[in-house]
Write a structure and sequence with these properties.
Shape: globular
Largest sheet: 10 strands, mixed
Distance between the termini: 47 Å
Strand order of the largest sheet: 1-8-2-3-7-4-6-5-9-10
Radius of gyration: 16 Å
Strand content: 15-25%
Order of helices and strands: EHEEHEHEEHEHEEEH
Helix content: 25-40%
Structural class: alpha/beta
Number of strands: 10
């Protein structure tokens, strides 16, 4: 298992592996994640296998800017635009109605696509470097706790990825909050690092 840091050399190596269709283990603003190119179906398949997840389970997307993934979003409602237009970076994953252009291997049973605009410096630099969004899911076996420390990552996952990136410090340790737009309302699917008051402030 190859492991690098989050410095320029680490980013360059991670970008090389990502462009080649490899699977990374990497730090995010919440916990360690697994993934690679969001558009690569083989990456999604390998990632699910590493986690022990069902073949058709949904996978979320990390982006640095909404413009990268706008064509994947069918929802053009005022509420969706308000959420997308919110300025500060938040550990908030949004489930949108997917457009026909969204990669089918990312979608859940209701044809929703989960997207988070990440504020993590490493993730943002990697996304910019490969000029593509990243598939992301927590780097743990299904049913186990998402790791905030590199040394807590399951050995089978470490051995199964093409490259591991060690942040060199503990991560936040709380997964992102997941919300879904339901007409003129927002439904909290999973409570996490973004609190209810912040969501209320965004929605108005």
């Amino acid at each position: 298992m190859n492991a690098v840091g989050t410095d320029k050399k680490g980013i360059a190596k991670a970008a090389q592996i990502t462009r080649a269709g490899g699977v990374l283990l990497y730090p995010t603003e919440t916990v360690y994640g697994l993934g690679g190119l969001a558009t690569n179906e083989h990456v999604a398949k390998r990632t699910r296998q590493l986690k022990g997840r069902p073949e058709k389970s949904p996978m979320l997307v990390l982006t640095d800017e909404w413009a990268r993934v706008t064509e994947w979003i069918a929802d053009r409602s005022a509420l969706a635009q308000r959420i997308i237009g919110y300025g500060p970076f938040l550990p908030l994953t949004i489930l949108f109605e997917a457009s026909p252009k969204a990669p089918s291997h990312l979608l859940g049973p209701e044809d929703l696509v989960g997207i988070r605009r990440t504020g993590d410096p490493f993730c943002r630099m990697l996304i910019a470097c490969v000029d593509a969004s990243l598939l992301s899911t927590s780097a743990n076996r299904t049913g186990e706790r998402a790791p905030a420390h590199f040394e807590d990552i399951d050995q089978s996952i470490l051995e199964g990825v093409d490259l591991a990136i060690d942040a060199g410090h503990a991560l936040r340790g709380v997964s992102s909050t997941v919300i879904r737009i339901d007409g003129d309302a927002v439904v909290v699917v999973r409570e996490g690092a973004t609190d209810a008051q912040t969501i209320h402030d965004i929605v108005g």
